[in-house]
Amino acid sequence: MYNDKNSKKIVETIQNWARSHSVWVLAYGTGCGAIEIAPTMTSRYDAERLGFRGAATPRQADVMLITGYLTVKTVKRVVRVYEQMQSPKYVVGFGSCTINGGMYYDSYNTINLLDKYLPVDVYINGCMPRPEAVIAGLAKLQQIIREGKANGAEKYLENLDWYKANQRKIAPKWIAKAPDYNW
Amino acid sequence: MDMITLILLLFLGGAIVTWLGGKLSPIVGDMLFLVTIIVPAGMFFTGVTVGEVTHLHALGLTLTWGLSPLSYLFSMIVVGLGILLAIYAVPFMKGKQKTGAFYFNFTLSVMAMLGILVSKDWVSFFIFWEIMTWSSYLMVILNGKDVQRVGIKYFIFSAIGAYAMLMAMVVMNSQLGSFLMADTFNNFQHLTVGNQILIPILLLTAFGVKSAMMPLHVWAPDAYSNAPMAYTGLFSGALSKMGIYGMVLVMVTMINQLPEGTLIRDIIAWMGGFTAAAATLWAITQDDGKKLLAWSSVGQMGYIIVGVAIGTPLAMLAALFLVVVHAMFKGSLFMVVGAIEKQTGTTDFREINGLIRKMPWTFISALISVIALAGIPPLAGFVSKWMLYEALIQNNNYILVILLFFASTAGFLYCYKFLHGYFLGQEEPEWAHVKEAPAAMVIPMLLLAIGTFVLGTFPQLLFKPIDSALQYVGYDATGGHLWGQSILFSEWGDIVTLQPILYVVLAVFVFFALFLWFKGTKGTRYVSTKDISTSGELPKEWENLTFKVNFMQPFERTIEPFLKRQIDKYYTAFGNGLEALFEFTRRIYTGNGQTYAIYAILFLALLLLFRVNLFG
Amino acid sequence: MIAKIKAAFPEAVNKAYDGNRLDFTVHKDAIPGFLSHMKEQLGFRHLSHIAYVDWIEENEFEIVYILWSPQDKVKLFIHTRIDRENPVMENIDMIWRQANTYQREMKEMLGIQFPDMVAPDEFILEDWDDIPPFRRDFDTLEYVNRTFWHRPGREDAQDVRETITKRSGEEIPDFAKKYSR
Amino acid sequence: MEYILIKTLEAMATFILAFLVGMTYGGVVRKITGRVHNRLGPPWYQNFIDAFKLFSKTRGIHHGAMHFLGAAFLMVTSVVSLMIIPVLAPGGHAWYNSWFTNMNFNGDLIFLLYIMTFGPLGMAMGAGQTGNPNSSIGVTRGLSQMVGFEIPWVMALVALMISYKTTSVIDFMNIQRETGTWLMFANPFAFIAAVLAMLGMFRYSPFDIVGAPTELASGPVSENGGKFLFTMMSSGSVFTFAKLVLYVDLFMGGANNLVMLVVKTFLLYMIPVLYGIVSPRYRTEQAVRWFWGWPTFIGLLAILYAVMF
User: Fold this and answer.
1) Are B523 and D60 in contact (CB under 8 A)?
2) Which residue of B has its CA nearest to D120?
3) How far is CA B592 from the centre of its chain?
4) Within 10 A of C97 (CB to CB), how many other CB atoms are there?
5) Is D46's CB within 8 Å of A88's CB?
6) What is the pLDDT of residues C64-83, one digit of tens each?
7) If 0-12 CB within 10 Å is exposed, 13-18 middle and 19+ buried, where does residue D254 land?
8) Domain count along chain C
9) Cβ-contact B483, B463 below 8 angstroms
10) Chains B and D touch (3+ CB pairs under 8 A)
11) CA-to-CA dists, residue B518 to B389, B562, D15, angstroms
């Protein structure tokens, strides 16, 4: 019965619906975007009515908001936190800095393309995106979760060597020291 | 030559033989030691019958020995704990110094405690009391550390107790002309009023010293933590219970005949409650496992003293039950600390981390014993605590019951501190080499822990002997025959049925443990305690993130004003003089029993003069 | 004040500024004695900052110690030049503890070696395997092209220097063209 | 045999009721908090979605055996205290009343006081096993706070015990049914002390230093996610319901049917919630000193009242 494909599909649908309506956010406040999280969460643009809620530690979180530019030192920590999250897990990139480096495109210590190092599910454009844009991006994330397309964790697991190679290119010693991501 | 004498002589001879054999080769010493402890113990369990009395004519006076139901209860503790600790002590003492002295004093202490329990006259009582005291004293200073501070403190307080008991004996003998306990108890009414007040107070002083009642407790924590751990189980489990034994005798036989008895009872009960609370607060602030357990022993003795002092049948039941159970779980916990000290070489919480995966069996016994210590159902500590609270409430000691509730709730703090300090926290490469303790050390502590588990569910195993003991000392039947279905009940009709609760607890626990284990087992993997969510930072190898230093700091900050006043200060001036005197005498004598004998004789002479003037 | 310092160190060259600012140019070997004398005798008890300039034209590094005297409210700028090829400087963090931080920064960003300086581990740049990035001959965009990726659509990026020169009208000197794109 | 089966089914019914009500209360509390913050707030069924999401996490980590046992200990406390506490008053005549008399006659208040501390201790072990310093810090704070609020709580209970000569919850409910007056009016000081202790028991502000999300990373649960957090969440809901029912039984005469039960527990639950929404956060020693201040004094008054009248 449980192995029946349709029942599995039904269970999957319900689970995706639940996941999409209860998303616990780990706001990794880098750069300027952290200031946009506060109005998004609090009573001006109340993100909790959509089921978004702050999570304290990566163990409990579902989605990681990367709010702004990532220096080489920061991206290591971000990768570490992402690997500590428990799948299904999603990544949302804020602003042009995560998309293409933005105004730091030629800085020697700021990465340009976030999705070379982590599987990003949703990008939110702007420098910085205003809370309306953030809400729109989160709604988009909910939609793709509901459609079951938000499979960043599987993507990361499948192309782990490629991601690790990219990370090792900017941070060789750190990646060597970090415990390996074997799940 | 009857059984009791034979057993005692076997202990005595075995001690000496063990010492000599230990000089030949350590293996012979170990074997002889085990034989010495186990053979007379077996003879005790098989041969001795309750109620038999024997007379011994020696030195012109008659020593009367016999076994009463009450002393049978206590001697069960002594012998059982003695056997287990002897099995434990052999691997514990392996490769240590002064093994011979350890075995000698250990055997001698067991012998002395049995002697105290079987002696029916004050002379032999006093003799065995002294043997017990100085054998334990030699055990306290065995490792040669802090002799100036710890040993002398213990010695001074024991001396005070001994002189008090001696004085009481002399007064009783001179007034009643008999050393027999029974005579002194029965003819208690014939004493003058001054003596009727004086004798119980003197005896209670002696027993209060041994059972570490609050104003007289100063020696206890240092002495407990300074003795070898294999002996401290006996020290705190059985040896301090001798004070309770004497206290029960005095309370029941003498205080009950006094018109002022209730006042004395209340004073003792409040001392006990104060002991429980303050010792708990002190235990919370300790950073060394030995000291923590020592203070917690003082606190548990406080509970027992409260129960004995209240003196209603339920309270006596609770106190005697806690006597046995405390012997079990505290013996197990001291064994745990000894095993950890044996395996890692230290007992400081701030140094050891995460032994749970290295020493799992030690952790299991520690966990069960700590749950029993905290008094959490369905383990044995809860039974005694429940009965104690019921007795207190029904005896209208409302503030005292609040005090004890506070003590037991604060007890959770040091319970958690103990477990977290040794077994939990991050696993350090420093302790990667640690192995589980040898089986001879693990099995006794596991047996004791499981014993607390069994007694928590089937307390009637213990209620029947306690009931007979209470009937012996003159209580009417405390309904020990009614406890068959392991139901706790009080006069108010409040019941706690233990067995169904235990089954429900086990069922729920097993169900959810299995649920957590089997739900998504494939997706769940083990990660080391170094791989924690530290906001993305990688802790370095030398970085230890475990939270150990100032562990209970918020609570300590709260109770600071209480901790400021410690009783030690008030003893300091007095103690300095006594220690100077003792230093002087130590230079004359060799610091063993002879000193003591001379003290006793001098004090006796003084006492006679003194008594003639005072009470003549 | 100038007289005092002159009396102590006659070889120090001073440059006059208005306000409460003094500038001195000292040879690099005299720096520790000079600074300690300033601190102990003349009351410049506070080290505000250590600035550094890369004079790639003279093939030299310039290090500026900025001191502040609390009681007579005088800023003291002490300039010194060291060779760019083997940049070695005296360690002064026994005079001011906070100098250690600036020196670690200089060590990583400019490659200046401070013998007998105790620096636990890398400070700003973690596992960096290129020439120090604050040297002016370090081409950051070339490094970025080598290390990171560009998303398509950035090829029309204007060089900032050209914009500046267009606005201000002065042309780029030849030595600078070498380092410009 | 079928006796045990029926008992098990009834216990399951009680557990499911407690789970549903507790979860709903959690969602409603979040909604109310949102409204007080002038937000829309999540829907009332948000906690169910969260629980199901946590339940259906596909990956997870554990730090060792004690990590599993901690959550199981927590569940033991919730379920056993729910079994012991009488959910419905014995006098009720509703057709489902007999379902909820699980083990009401097997324990009394002292037993409840101790079994209620069983879970936090086991939870503390689980938190210590994870090796996360935040967990241990949160646990020590929680235990210290427990020592703080146990004093007035025990004082209130002792006052009730000595005035009615019993320690069994069923007897208290019978007494209230016979005399017709709730104990919160019979001994108001005891009720006040118990309610002040309740503020700390439910760990809303200002006594939420235990799991402060911003400074402790949610304290003891900081290493738990997925099924562990699901278990702790449902255990917390059940335990909340059990404690509320205990308060209702002791001070408000119990409830004869489920509607009255829900109403009374909800009204009682609003006290710590509404007090917590508008409160800042106490440090631990401030909280403990607060509990040892006025609440303890009121508890003493309650005991005096019980002794005199």
Assistant:
1) yes
2) B412
3) 24
4) 9
5) no
6) 999 888 888 888 888 888 88
7) buried
8) 2
9) yes
10) yes
11) 41, 49, 21
Task: Evaluate whether B530 touches B539 at the Cβ level (below 8 Å).
Answer: yes
CA distance B13 to D275: 73
Give contacts of B512 with chain D, Cβ < 8 Å. Answer: 71-72, 75-76, 231
Q: At A151, is the secondary structure helix, strand, or coil? A: coil
Instruction: Provide the domain limits for residue C150.
Output: 139-181
Domain-embedded: residue A10: no
DSSP D207: S
Amino acid (one-letter) located at A97: C
Is the Cβ pair B504, D79 closer than 8 Å?
yes
Rounded Cα–Cα distance for residues D133 and D120 (Å): 17
Consecutive 10-residue averages of pLDDT for chain D (309 residues)? 84 90 92 89 90 88 85 89 86 74 79 86 86 86 88 91 86 86 87 91 84 77 86 91 90 85 90 88 87 90 87
C115 and C127, same domain (yes or no): yes
C-beta of residue A66 within 8 angstroms of C-beta of residue A155: no
Q: Provide the ipTM.
A: 0.83
What residue numbers bound the domain in which A30 lies? 24-172
Low-confidence stretches of chain B (pLDDT < 70) are 1, 58-60, 477-485, 564-600, 604-605, 607-616
Q: Torsions phi, psi of D247, nearest 5?
A: -60, -45
**CA A69 – CA A96 distance, rounded (Å):** 8
- The pTM score is 0.86
CB contact under 8 A, B554 and D285: yes
Q: Is residue B340 part of a domain?
A: yes
> pLDDT, tens digit, for every residue of D74-133?
888 999 888 888 888 777 777 777 777 777 777 788 888 888 888 888 888 888 888 888
Amino acid found at B143? N
Angle at D118 between CA D117 and CA D122, to 5 degrees: 120
Please answer yes or no on whether A18 and D56 come within 8 Å at the CB atom. Answer: yes
Q: Which residues of chain C are within 8 Å of residue A76 when distances are taken between CB atoms?
A: 126
Give the ranges where D37-132 is alpha helix by DSSP (H).
46-55, 65-84, 109-115, 118-129
Residue D141's identity, in one-letter code, is: R
How many distinct structural domains can be found in chain B?
1
Enumerate the residues of chain C whose CB falls inside 8 A of the CB of residue A169: 147
- From the list B388, B361, B383, the residue with the least C-alpha distance to B372 is B383
Q: pLDDT per residue over D237-260, tens digit each?
A: 999 999 999 999 888 888 888 888
Nearest to D131 among B354, B402, B512 (CB): B354
Domain of residue A106, CATH code: 3.40.50.12280
pLDDT of residue D179: 86
For residue D279, give Cα distances in angstroms to A43, C136, D268: 18, 56, 18
Q: How distant, in Å, are the alpha carbons of A68, B349, B352, C154, D223 from that of B345?
A: 51, 12, 10, 65, 31
User: From CA D219, how far away is CA B469, in angstroms rounded?
Assistant: 50
Q: Any alpha helices (H) in C9-151, and if so which ranges?
A: 31-40, 99-110, 140-147
Chain A residue with minimum CA distance to C152: A100
For residue D230, the chain A residues in CB contact (below 8 A) are none
